[in-house]
């Protein structure tokens, strides 16, 4: 039997990749899900047939983040599950890292999580039930060169998660972070393509080389696997998992 019947969820950045995998996993367990993100008209039309609600909030703007939660509350009848997944990336050495990219990455990858949590917590407290899942990264736990903004933001997400977990520790609300390693999302595919072009090697070889550098399993984590972990964190079995940063990274952070 579906385990999330009657629950209402918002998943940010959910029109593709990890977010869409999580949205589908929650929906498969009976949750009503509001999607958020960008995409062409054909993509969004297709997703609207699959999900009951969609909102195209620009998460770099705090008021639009709050509007996303208001809209979901109105359309779904409330928000029981919040998954902060949306993220962007830019790579460059710190000396040449564009200040505007720093600001954009911190706004979307970190600040939007704060604004969404702040907006949704009052109704979760009123019902004494809620699940907040922040999609951090292995880069919320360890660092790599040329990703200063992304890593600063994801470390911030892990810290934010811990504070929210402490502030809700005696309630029916839990807050945790999932820390994926390499997942073959459009964001990572761009890095693979760039590596292939820079080194003049086939794309498949670039994938192998990318995995070999960091992820001992030599396998990409899938959005479906991350979705299954999110479903578990929403379950009663996970009620005392609070403030955790859970790697799903093929032993990347075990090294």
Describe this structure in words.
- By secondary structure, the chain is α/β, with parallel strands linked by helices.
- It has two domains: 8-181 and 221-249, Rossmann fold; 184-220.
- 49% of the residues lie in helices and 13% in strands.
- The chain is built from eight helices and seven strands, in the order βαβαβαβαβαβαααβ.
- It has a seven-stranded parallel β-sheet with strand order 3-2-1-4-5-6-7, sandwiched between helices.
- α1 (17-28) crosses α8.
- The longest helix has 29 residues, at 99-127.
- The termini are far apart.
- The mean pLDDT is 97.
Low-confidence stretches: none
**Rounded Rg:** 18 Å
Share in helix:
40-55%
Mean pLDDT: 97
Q: Compute the number of helices.
A: 8
The domain tally reads: 2
Query: What's the order of the H and E elements?
Result: EHEHEHEHEHEHHHE
Strand content: 5-15%
CATH superfamily of the largest domain: NAD(P)-binding Rossmann-like Domain
Main sheet properties? 7 strands, parallel
CATH topology of the largest domain: Rossmann fold
By CATH, the architecture of the largest domain is named 3-Layer(aba) Sandwich
DSSP strand tally: 7
Question: What structural class do the secondary elements suggest?
Answer: alpha/beta
Q: Specify the overall morphology.
A: globular
Q: Tell me the name of the CATH class of the largest domain.
A: Alpha Beta
């Amino acid at each position: 039997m579906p385990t999330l019947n009657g629950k209402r969820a918002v998943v940010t950045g959910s029109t593709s990749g990890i977010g869409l995998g999580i949205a589908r996993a929650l929906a498969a367990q009976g949750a009503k899900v509001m999607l958020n993100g960008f995409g062409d008209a054909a993509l969004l039309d297709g997703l609207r047939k699959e999900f009951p609600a969609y909102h195209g909030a620009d998460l770099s703007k705090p008021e639009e983040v709050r509007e996303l939660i208001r809209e979901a509350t109105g359309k779904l009848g409330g928000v029981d599950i919040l998954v902060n997944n949306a993220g962007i990336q830019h790579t460059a050495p710190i000396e040449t890292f564009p200040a505007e990219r720093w600001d954009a990455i911190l706004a979307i990858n970190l600040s939007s999580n704060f604004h969404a949590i702040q907006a949704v917590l009052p109704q979760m407290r009123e019902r004494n039930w809620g699940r907040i899942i922040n999609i951090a990264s292995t880069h919320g736990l360890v660092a790599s060169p040329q990703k200063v903004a992304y890593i600063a933001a994801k470390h911030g997400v892990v810290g934010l998660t811990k504070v929210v977990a402490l502030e809700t520790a005696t309630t029916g609300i839990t807050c945790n972070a999932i820390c994926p390693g390499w997942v073959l999302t459009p964001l990572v595919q761009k890095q693979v393509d760039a590596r292939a072009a820079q080194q003049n090697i086939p794309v498949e070889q670039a994938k192998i080389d990318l995995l070999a550098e960091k992820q001992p399993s030599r396998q990409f984590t899938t959005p479906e696997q991350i979705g299954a972990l999110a479903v578990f964190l929403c379950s009663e079995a996970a009620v005392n998992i609070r403030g955790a940063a859970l790697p799903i990274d093929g032993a990347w952070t075990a090294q």
